[in-house]
Design goal:
Elements (H helix, E strand, L loop, with lengths): L4 H13 L3 H7 L6 H29 L2 E3 L2 E3 L2 H12 L18 H14 L1 H20 L2 H13 L2 E6 L15 E4 L5 E11 L8 E9 L9 E7 L10 E6 L10 E14 L5 H37 L17 H33 L3 H37 L10 H8 L9 H15 L3 H11 L9 H18 L4 H30 L4 H29 L16
Helix pairs in contact: 1-3, 1-5, 1-9, 2-9, 3-4, 3-5, 5-6, 5-8, 5-9, 6-7, 6-8, 8-9, 8-10, 9-10, 9-15, 9-16, 10-11, 10-12, 10-13, 10-15, 12-15, 13-14, 14-15, 14-16, 15-16
Protein name: Acyl-CoA dehydrogenase
GO molecular function, one term: acyl-CoA dehydrogenase activity
Cofactor: FAD
Length: 568
C-alpha cells in the first residue's frame, strides 16, 4: 500500500484554503491554531499507516465469532484499539473544559479520511463513540453525561445508535420497540433492533445503546423517546440486552453488525419524552457527516493503489521495443485523472461542510450561526451520498486499472469494493438523502441553504480562471432546476429527487474545484491538486446538463413500471 504522506499533504492544504477557515480560527479561541491542526493531521497519518492499516486485511479474513452471547474479536483488533485510545483520539472533539482537546470537526474530517483509508471496519467503532459522546452532551442529564464521559473517552465503555428494526428501517414512524416507566421510577425497554454496528464486542467493558423506543401510542414519530440502555448494569450484571446474531455481510467483516433484543432492559431517558427523534438527529447528522471522510478515505486508498500499479505495470507499445508502463496509455491517464478530480473535490467539500458546522456552533453572531447551519444542512446529504457512491465507484475504476489482478485478494481493491458498497445504504440510502434535500431543504425550508450556497459559489471565481464559465453554467442550471422542482409535488417530485441530488453534488464539487484552482498554490502539492481539479471541471458541465435534464424531464416513463410484473 502506498504511503500516506501525499494524502496528508493534500488534506493539510485543504484545511489551509477551506471556506470559513478564518472565521473558524477566530471563533475557536485557544484551540484555533493552524500549526497545531496540521500536526494533528500528521499524527493521524502516522497512526493510520503504522497501526490501523496493517490489521485491515486481518479483520477482513478472520471475521468475527460469537461466544457466550458476545462477539469475540481478534487480538490484533484489540491492540489497535488500545493504541488509538492511548493516542487520545476519543478526546479529540470533546470540549477543552471537559478534559478534551476541543478540535473542530474540520480537522477531524481530515484525520478520519486517513483512518478510514486504513480500515473503515475499524473506524466504525470510534466514530459511533465520538458521535454518541456529543449526543449525551446535548441530551443527557449532566450527571449522566459526567458519569459516562470519562469511560467513553478512555475507551473502556463504547456506544451505539439503535434505530432500525426488522420492519422499520428508515421509516422510523413504524418503530415498535417500547419503553415503560415502572412504579419504581425505572424505565424499561423491550423490543428488537437490527443493523447495530459494534452492538456487541469484547473491546470494552460496557456498551451503551442510544435507542429510540415508543413511550406513547401517538402515531408516527411523535410517540418516540430516546434512551440510553447499557448492556450491563453498573455492577456488571446483564441488563436484558441480548445478542441475537451477527450478520453475515459482503464486506466490513471486522465490524460486527448485530441484531439485538431488549428484554425489560433498564434505561435512562435522554432529553424530553416524546422528542426522541429530534434528539437523535444530532447523532445521526454527525454520523452522516463522518460518511464523507469514510468515502473519500476508501476512494483515496483505491486510487493510490491504481496509480502506483499503473506506473509499474508494463504492457503495450511497439512490440519490437520493451513494453511501456500502462500509465503511458491515454485511456488509463484519462481514467486516473477523472478519479483524482472526483476525490479532490469531495475531500474539499467534506472539510467545507464540517467547517460550516463548526462556525455554526462557535461564532459570536447569531445571524452568522444560523446561516452556517442552513448551509451545512444543505450540504450534508450531498457530502454523505456523494462520498458514499464515490468510494464504490473509484474502487471499481481502480479494479479496471489493475485488470484481473484487482479482482484477486492479492490486492486490496476487491476488499475496498466490498466494504464500500454499504456506504450509500446505511445512515440513509441515496434515495433518502435525495428526498431530504428536495423535500426538506428545498421545499420546506424554502431553499435557504441553497441560496446561501449559490451566493458563496458565485462569488468564488476570479482572475479569469479557465473554468469560470463552466462553474457559472452549473450554478445557473442548479438554480433553474430547483426553481422548477419547488413547484412540483407527488410523483413528479419524487421521481426527480435522485437526479436533483446528483446535480447538487456536481455543483458543490465544482465550487470546491474552483477554489482549488485559485488557492491551492504552485508547489508540488498545489500543482497536483490543480491537475485533479481541472480534470473534474472538464467533465462537470456535461454531467450537470445530464442530471438537470433527468430531473426536469417528464415522469411518464414510470407509467411503464407495472409492465415489469408480467405473467406467463
Amino acid at each position: 500500500m502506498p504511503g500516506y504522506s501525499h494524502q496528508a499533504a493534500r488534506l493539510q492544504r485543504h484545511l489551509e484554503i477551506a471556506p470559513f477557515i478564518d472565521e473558524l480560527l477566530e471563533a475557536s479561541g485557544g484551540t484555533g491554531d493552524m500549526d497545531l491542526w496540521q500536526m494533528v493531521v500528521e499524527e493521524a497519518s502516522r497512526l493510520s499507516e503504522g497501526v490501523v492499516a496493517p490489521i485491515d486485511s486481518q479483520l477482513d479474513q478472520a471475521g468475527l465469532t460469537m461466544e457466550n452471547g458476545r462477539v469475540r474479536t481478534i487480538p490484533a483488533h484489540g491492540h489497535a484499539w488500545q493504541a488509538y485510545v492511548q493516542a487520545g483520539w476519543l478526546t479529540a472533539d470533546v470540549p477543552a473544559d471537559q478534559g478534551g482537546q476541543g478540535l473542530p470537526l474540520a480537522v477531524l474530517s481530515a484525520c478520519e479520511e486517513l483512518m478510514n483509508r486504513a480500515s473503515p471496519a475499524f473506524m466504525m467503532l470510534p466514530t459511533a463513540v465520538r458521535c454518541a459522546t456529543a449526543l449525551l452532551h446535548d441530551a443527557a442529564d449532566p450527571a449522566v453525561y459526567q458519569a459516562w464521559l470519562p469511560h467513553l473517552t478512555a475507551g473502556s465503555w463504547t456506544a451505539t445508535i439503535c434505530i432500525s428494526e426488522p420492519d422499520a428501517g428508515s421509516d422510523v414512524g413504524r418503530i415498535r420497540t417500547s419503553a415503560a416507566l415502572g412504579a419504581d421510577g425505572i424505565w424499561r425497554v423491550t423490543g428488537e433492533k437490527c443493523w447495530i454496528s459494534y452492538g456487541s464486542h469484547d473491546l470494552a467493558e460496557r456498551i451503551g445503546h442510544c435507542i429510540l423506543a415508543r413511550t406513547s401510542p401517538a402515531p408516527g414519530v411523535r410517540g418516540l423517546s430516546l434512551f440510553l440502555v447499557p448492556d450491563r448494569a453498573a455492577t456488571g450484571e446483564p441488563n436484558g440486552v441480548v445478542l441475537r446474531r451477527i450478520e453475515e455481510k459482503m464486506g466490513l467483516h471486522g465490524s460486527p453488525t448485530c441484531a439485538i433484543g431488549f428484554e425489560d432492559a433498564h434505561a435512562t431517558l435522554l432529553g424530553k419524552e416524546g422528542a426522541g427523534l429530534q434528539h437523535m438527529f444530532r447523532m445521526m447528522s454527525a454520523m452522516r457527516l463522518s460518511c464523507g471522510p469514510q468515502g473519500t478515505g476508501v476512494a483515496s486508498g483505491s486510487f493510490h493503489v491504481a496509480l502506483d500499479y499503473a506506473r509499474e505495470r508494463r504492457q503495450g507499445g511497439d512490440p519490437v521495443t520493451p513494453p511501456v508502463a500502462i500509465a503511458e496509455h491515454p485511456d488509463i491517464q484519462r481514467l486516473l485523472l477523472s478519479m483524482a478530480g472526483r476525490i479532490e473535490a469531495a475531500r474539499g467539500l467534506n472539510i467545507a461542510a464540517a467547517a460550516a458546522l463548526d462556525v455554526a456552533g462557535l461564532h459570536a453572531d447569531q445571524a452568522v450561526r444560523d446561516d452556517q447551519l442552513a448551509l451545512a444542512q444543505w450540504l450534508l446529504p450531498i457530502v454523505k451520498d456523494g462520498a458514499a457512491r464515490l468510494a464504490f465507484e473509484i474502487s471499481s475504476d481502480a479494479m479496471q486499472v489493475l485488470g484481473g489482478a484487482g479482482y484477486t485478494r492479492e490486492w486490496p481493491i476487491e476488499r475496498h469494493l466490498r466494504d464500500s458498497r454499504v456506504f450509500s445504504i446505511y445512515e440513509g440510502t441515496s434515495g433518502i438523502q435525495a428526498i431530504d434535500l428536495l423535500e426538506r431543504r428545498l421545499k420546506r425550508e424554502k431553499g435557504r441553504g441553497l441560496r446561501i450556497f449559490l451566493d458563496l459559489a458565485r462569488r468564488e471565481p476570479g482572475g479569469g480562471q479557465a473554468f469560470d464559465a463552466e462553474l457559472q453554467h452549473i450554478l445557473a442550471m442548479l438554480e433553474r432546476t430547483s426553481g422548477m422542482l419547488a413547484q412540483c409535488d407527488g410523483r413528479t417530485s419524487a421521481a426527480a429527487a435522485t437526479p436533483f441530488l446528483r446535480l447538487a453534488t456536481i455543483a458543490a464539487h465544482a465550487w470546491i474545484a474552483a477554489r482549488i484552482l485559485r488557492l491551492a498554490g504552485d508547489d508540488a502539492t498545489g500543482r497536483s491538486m490543480k491537475a485533479a481539479a481541472s480534470a473534474f471541471m472538464s467533465d462537470a458541465r456535461h454531467l450537470a446538463d445530464l442530471e438537470a435534464a433527468r430531473a426536469s424531464g417528464p415522469d411518464t416513463v414510470l407509467d411503464d413500471f407495472p409492465r415489469l410484473y408480467c405473467e406467463g
